[in-house]
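[Discussion] Sanity-checking designs against the backbone

I'm trying to build intuition for which residues belong where. Below is a structure token string of 403 positions. I'd appreciate it if someone posts a full sequence so I can compare it with mine line by line.
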């Protein structure tokens, strides 16, 4: 075999290794399709969010006339439509998150395949270098009849060495990227579970709200006079509860001071008493509160949720009052906290704590109600929790003290 043939074979071998070490672009059809699906889900979410906002405005307008039977029914119907859209939104969010999972899963699969390929290429390059580097530089020059042949081999080996170092860096980057994508996949799996949990809660809330209209017709016998009588009774009961809350807070704090209990600990911020799966349906002093002319401004926030949702204490505190109406009247809990704060939890279907006891942040204290005519509901247009924060006995905006 002559020297030209040897050089030619070396060049071809090095060329093959260099080509193998160059980045390869995988077919991106699957990823492109998944990313297009992701874009469509995001666009659908924006559309649904716009429709939800329009329905919320419509519900707010309907609440202006909620002091008649027909008006209250229209409010409930509007709430059902809004809740249905919220459920649709969550369904699209589930689809979007599942698509994101598939995108990341496909990216991980491709990155693993690319890393395996580069590892094989590195092994081949290292094998070639081991064969070549058994010769010293002097021996390499003596292998060829001319200087150009030796220089060709030396330059080719240098290129393989350089590309090998670059590929080692790429493998390291791929390994780091895989770690990041694996973490993203775990986050998406957790997010998907939370979305499906929320979806189930929203479905139950919607069912409760749909049943509320029939229950309202049942307890009023579809008669406006019956509804007005119930409305006035509920309003009077709610005014008594508000007055009682203010009086009891002052009396209990004075008694605790006499017992030498001068501090109930710091508050900072309050935890959400229930998961705000539908956000806040009526905020602090919201102008469209339907009963403001009967009991005054809305003193807290309303958090729609399905009947029987566990209610948790917003912070450590002392239970000053638990009132269970024993029927469809307004049931509530009053808890005193440090820094002269207190919280009220209203429309409860059940109460799980006793007066005179200390509670801890996040402790279960009862369950939500609010469907018209059900236990603990009082004056209400549907299942939800009424949550108040008071400072020095005066209601303040809870949203300013929630995370």
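Best answer:
Here's mine. Compare freely.
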């Amino acid at each position: 075999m002559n020297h030209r043939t040897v050089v030619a074979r070396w060049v071809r071998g090095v060329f093959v290794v260099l080509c193998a070490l160059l980045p390869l672009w995988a077919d991106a059809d699957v990823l492109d399709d998944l990313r297009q699906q992701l874009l469509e889900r995001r666009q659908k979410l924006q559309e649904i969010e716009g429709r939800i906002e329009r329905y919320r405005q419509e519900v707010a307008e309907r609440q202006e006339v909620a002091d008649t039977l027909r008006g209250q029914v229209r409010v409930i119907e509007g709430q059902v439509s809004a809740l249905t859209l919220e459920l649709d939104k969550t369904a699209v969010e589930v689809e979007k998150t599942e698509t994101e999972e598939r995108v990341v899963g496909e990216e991980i699969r491709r990155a693993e395949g690319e890393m395996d390929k580069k590892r094989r290429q590195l092994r081949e390059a290292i094998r070639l270098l081991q064969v070549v580097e058994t010769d010293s530089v002097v021996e390499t020059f003596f292998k060829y009849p001319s200087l150009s042949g030796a220089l060709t081999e030396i330059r080719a080996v240098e290129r393989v060495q350089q590309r090998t170092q670059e590929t080692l860096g790429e493998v390291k980057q791929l390994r780091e990227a895989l770690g990041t994508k694996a973490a993203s996949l775990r986050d998406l799996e957790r997010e998907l579970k939370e979305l499906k949990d929320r979806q189930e809660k929203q479905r139950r809330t919607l069912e409760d709200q749909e049943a509320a209209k029939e229950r309202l017709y049942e307890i009023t016998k579809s008669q406006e006079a019956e509804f007005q009588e119930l409305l006035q009774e509920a309003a009077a009961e709610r005014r008594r509860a508000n007055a009682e809350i203010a009086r009891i807070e002052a009396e209990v704090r004075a008694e605790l001071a006499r017992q030498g209990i001068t501090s109930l600990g710091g508050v900072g911020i309050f935890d959400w008493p229930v998961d705000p799966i539908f956000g806040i349906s009526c905020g602090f002093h919201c102008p469209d509160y339907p009963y403001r002319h009967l009991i005054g401004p809305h003193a807290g926030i309303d958090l729609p949720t399905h009947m029987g949702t566990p209610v948790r204490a917003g912070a450590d505190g002392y239970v000053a009052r638990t009132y269970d109406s024993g029927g469809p009247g307004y049931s509530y809990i009053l808890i005193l906290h440090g820094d002269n704060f207190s919280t009220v939890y209203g429309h409860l279907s059940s109460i799980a704590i006793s007066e005179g006891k200390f509670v801890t942040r996040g402790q279960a204290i009862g369950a939500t109600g609010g469907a018209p005519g059900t236990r603990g509901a009082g004056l209400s247009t549907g299942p939800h929790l009424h949550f108040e924060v008071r400072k020095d006995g005066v209601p303040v905006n809870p949203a300013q003290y929630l995370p």
